[in-house]
Every structure is written in structure tokens, then in C-alpha cells.
Design brief:
Layout lengths: L6 H7 L3 E10 L2 E9 L6 E9 L2 E7 L6 H4 L2 E6 L2 E6 L8 E9 L7 E7 L5 E2 L10 H21 L1
Parallel strand pairs: 1-9
Antiparallel strand pairs: 1-2, 2-6, 3-4, 3-7, 5-6, 7-8
Length: 157
């Protein structure tokens, strides 16, 4: 028998896992961060949608067509292990259950889905550094380099 046969099965089991879905306000704009664990190099497709009054509305997607009312206000940025939805001029009419759905090409384990309820009054402001500081070592580096920067400034005077 061919010992290589089980390999594709193992590969398929290593899917994209959504680790965390969070939302915050950046000025008047809503930002929804969909963090995932990247287990494959395959291209990633995504869909951000909102469910309100028991109806699902697609905000931004590479999987299906987004609705006109959102298309002009929404854009998505992709970073390492993070798919980020930006929705401009967020108001209470945009409140609802936001859903992030991820799918990797040729991943047979199905789509990964996570929900978050977004209510304007309960949203926190986005931390300016959250994209930069993926882990604390960044912050540590930043703090350690501050005295250094001041010293350099002093020398250049």
C-alpha cells in the first residue's frame, strides 16, 4: 500500500482557525478585527456580514456580492493573521451581529465563522498601536528605545 495516501487528509484537517473577533471605534468608523491562525499558505477568502432584524446583509466579501448600501462605506485590509473590516460613518443603524467568515482555497474542512454583537454605546475606542503590537516584545522594544532616541536627539544638538 502507498504510505503517502493519508497526507492530503491530514492537510485538509489543518484549517484556518478564527481565534478572535473584536470590534472598536476609530473616530466615526467601526473596525472589526478577525484574527485567525494561519495553517496554510493557500489564498484566503473572507466575508463580513451583519445580521439585523433576522436578516443577513453582506458588508464586504470575496465569497459573495456585498450590498450596495455598504459597498461604498466598507473596505477590508489584510495583514498577517488578521482580516480587518473598516466601516465608515458608523451609526446606531449599523448595530447588529457582525459575522466574520474565512475560507482557505482548497480547504475541505468548511468555512470558519465567528460572531460578535456590536452596539455603539458599548464599543471601545481602537488602540492606535494594536496592529503594530502583535505581542508585548514590540511594546518592550518601543519603551526601551525611548531613552535611546532622547539621547540621540541630545547628541545631535
Amino acid at each position: 500500500s502507498n504510505p503517502l495516501l493519508p497526507l492530503p487528509v491530514l492537510q485538509a484537517a489543518q484549517c484556518q482557525m478564527i481565534k478572535d473577533l473584536s470590534a472598536c471605534l476609530l473616530g466615526q468608523n467601526l473596525r472589526v478585527d478577525c484574527r485567525y491562525e494561519n495553517k496554510t499558505d493557500n489564498p484566503l477568502t473572507y466575508e463580513f456580514s451583519i445580521t439585523k432584524d433576522n436578516r443577513k446583509h453582506v458588508i464586504h466579501s470575496t465569497i459573495s456580492v456585498s450590498e450596495n448600501i455598504y459597498r461604498s462605506r466598507a473596505n477590508v485590509t489584510m495583514h498577517k493573521n488578521l482580516v480587518c473590516l473598516h466601516l465608515q460613518s458608523f451609526t446606531t443603524s449599523d448595530e447588529g451581529i457582525y459575522m466574520c467568515e474565512l475560507k482557505a482555497t482548497n480547504d475541505y474542512t468548511g468555512n470558519q465563522i465567528k460572531n460578535i454583537t456590536v452596539i455603539k454605546d458599548k464599543l471601545e475606542k481602537c488602540a492606535g498601536f494594536s496592529l503594530l503590537i502583535q505581542n508585548t516584545s514590540w511594546l518592550l522594544l518601543l519603551l526601551l528605545s525611548l531613552p535611546l532616541l532622547q539621547a540621540v536627539d541630545f547628541v545631535s544638538l
